[in-house]
Amino acid sequence: MGRNPRKTQAQRGQAALIAVERETLHARLAALDRDRAGHEQAHVTGDNTPSSDMLDSIQENMAKEEVLVRREALIQRLRVLAKAEEKVKEGTYGLCEVCGEPIPPARLRALPEAVLCVACAEAEEHRRTRSR
């Protein structure tokens, strides 16, 4: 079974977009980690009196939680992009995992990690909202 050269070229283009997105996410993750480390270092050398304000403590904990949530979201996105890269290598990138139909190029440009066509993604979302 021969490969369509245009499809292969399109897949290579998408692979490049995925790689750029992955690099961007790695940079954001590194910046987040640097900021967190700097923030923690500042608190180590700062005022450590036992009578610190409870509100400051609550705000600090909320800020830490926010950073952890953002970090986990970046890591999850990296996992999804790695799956998309694997699909490019396998030659199955751009095909819906449910129905096997091609995923529209505009959807892949907007969401390079998309593994479902629009119809199957909507059906999946509808199924999820019904089960809640």
Feature tags:
132 residues, 4 helices, 2 domains, 74% helix
Number of domain units: 2
Helix vs. strand class? mainly alpha
What characterizes the major β-sheet? Answer: none
Beta strand count: 0
Strand/helix succession: HHHH
Computed Rg: 21 Å
Bin the helical content: over 70%
Regions with pLDDT < 50 over 5+ consecutive residues? none
Shape: flat
Distance between the termini: 44 Å
Beta-strand content bin: under 5%
Can you give the mean pLDDT?
Answer: 84
Please report the number of helical segments: 4
Protein model, in words:
The chain has 132 residues and is mainly α. It has two domains: 1-91; 94-132, no CATH class. 74% of the residues lie in helices and 0% in strands. The protein contains four helices and no strands. The protein has helices at residues 5-45, 54-90, 105-110, 118-131. Helix 1 (5-45) packs antiparallel against helix 2. It is flat, with a radius of gyration of 21 Å.
Give a quick rundown of the structure:
The protein is mainly alpha-helical and 132 residues long.
Please write out the topology.
Elements: H1 5-45, H2 54-90, H3 105-110, H4 118-131
Helix pairs in contact: 1-2
